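Please check these two lines:
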Amino acid sequence: MDKQHKILVIEDEPGLRTTLAELLEINGYEVQTAKDGLDGFNAIIDYSPHLVICDINMPKMNGYEVLSTVNKRMSEELMPSFLFLTARVQLEDIKQGLKLGADDYILKPFVSTDLLASIEMRLKKRQTLLDYHGQGANQDSGHKPPAQQPTNEKIGLPVGEGIRYIKLTDVLKCEAERAYCNFYLTSGEKILVSKPMKEFEAQLEQSGFIRVHKSYIVNMECVETYVRGKGGYLVLTDGSSVAVSARKKEIVLAALGS
C-alpha cells in the first residue's frame, strides 16, 4: 500500500514521542507530533491526519476527551483512524475507549511490529471506505456494499435429554470445561452442553469461529477489539475478554485484518 499517509502522535512523554515519530518515519509515514491533549486536538483539525496515535493520561485534555471532542467537531466528516496507546490495562478503560469509537487499544510497552501492523490494517480499511464513497456508491451508480452471506446455519447442542438448535450467529464463544463445554450466546444466556468442546470445533471453524486458546473458540464477528500482549486478548461485544495464546496470535491478527 502507499505509505504516504499522515500520522499524528499525541504523547506527553518526550522520549516516547520521539521514538514513535522515528519509527513511523523510518517506515515511510509523514509524522506530526503533539505534546498534550489540547495540542493534539488542534493538530487534528489543522493537520488533517489519516491516523492518530494517542496516549490517554495527558495534561490539558486526556485521550478520551480528545476523541470525544473530535467526534463532536467532525460528526459530518470522515474521521481519522484513532488508536489509543496507553498503560491503562483495565477492561473498563478499554470499553470506554471503544465506546467513543477508537479503532484499536494497544498497551505499553508495545511491540513495534504489532503497532505497525495495526496502523497498516486501519489505513487499508480507511482507504477502502474512501474508495467506495469516491465512486459515488448508490443505487444508480451500480456500486453496492458487499452483500452479507446467509447466516441461517444452526448448531445442535445436546441439552438434557434432547437437542437444542441455536443459530451460529447467536453464539458468542464456546468454553471448554473438562468433559463438558459452555456455549455463551449474544443474548447473555449460557448453555452447559454435555459434550467436550472438540466435538463442535470443526463446525464452528467452518463458520468463521477461531480457536484462540485451548479453552476457547470465539465467533470473530463478535470481537470488539484485540489488545496486544505476548498473546494478547480479545474484548467481545458483551464486554467479556478472552485470552489469546501466543501461538494463535498471528491467526487472530490475520482474521481481524481480513
